[in-house]
Design a protein that fits this description.
about 15% strand; about 210 residues; single chain; alpha/beta; Rossmann fold; Arc Repressor Mutant, subunit A
Length: about 210
């Protein structure tokens, strides 16, 4: 008796650029054991799609228009811990990459990956292995510090800014970081001043332009 073929690995792409989703579709179309089950253009859509489609692996863009990748990963790990997340980015030196990797993802790929490498990475991630593009591995650790130095920000100011970008209030940030509310306010005011921002929204925008978020 012939054993049935194993089920295809179900993949969801979360990326706000349709050309990326189209490219992944073309790359995976000839791969028989991997199925692209859907796509989403922002973090919130990605979370909803993950709940509805139950993918095995998610290709997650590092830069999304509505949520930080770290926040999406955190919510996914809470709601669907069985899903393996592969960061999918065009920036090997993005300063926000180390923070995203610390959230417990399966690894990171650059968007110019080949069909063979993409399929292999998805299979390995699904199998519980860590996957890292060789152009990223070992090179991203100092990128954040360099970017912070250019912006004149301290690591603590950056941590506060990241949580602000994730939509947290000052009291929530204070609780997360073990700080007083006044200290959080001071860090945030200092960060806005250094970035030349008049408010939280401008600070997030300027930090994104500097590839800090």
């Amino acid at each position: 008796m012939i054993a049935p073929a194993p089920a295809a690995v179900r993949v969801l792409v979360v990326d706000d650029h349709p050309v990326v989703t189209h490219g992944v579709t073309l790359l995976l179309k000839p791969v028989r054991d991997i199925e692209l089950v859907g796509s989403a253009r922002n973090g919130r859509e990605g979370l909803e799609s993950a709940e509805q489609l139950r993918p095995d692996v998610i290709l997650l863009d590092l830069r999304l228009p509505d949520l930080l990748a770290t926040e999406v990963i955190r919510r996914l790990r809470s709601a669907r811990p069985e899903i393996r997340v592969l960061l999918f980015t065009a920036y090997a030196d993005h300063a926000a990459l180390p923070a995203a990797l610390e959230e417990g993802v399966a690894g990171c790929l650059l968007k110019d990956v080949s069909t063979t490498d993409l399929a292999s990475a998805i299979r390995r991630a699904h199998a519980g292995l860590t996957v890292m593009d060789h152009r990223i591995e070992g090179s991203s650790g100092g990128q954040l510090q360099e970017a912070l130095h250019r912006a004149g920000l301290t690591r603590r100011e950056y941590e506060v800014l990241r949580l602000v970008a994730a939509g947290q209030t000052n009291p929530e940030i204070a609780e997360d970081l073990g700080l007083t509310r006044n200290t959080v306010k001071t860090y945030l005011q200092s960060t806005m001043s250094k970035l030349g921002a008049r408010n939280r929204v401008e600070a997030i925008a300027k930090a994104s332009e500097a590839h800090l978020l």
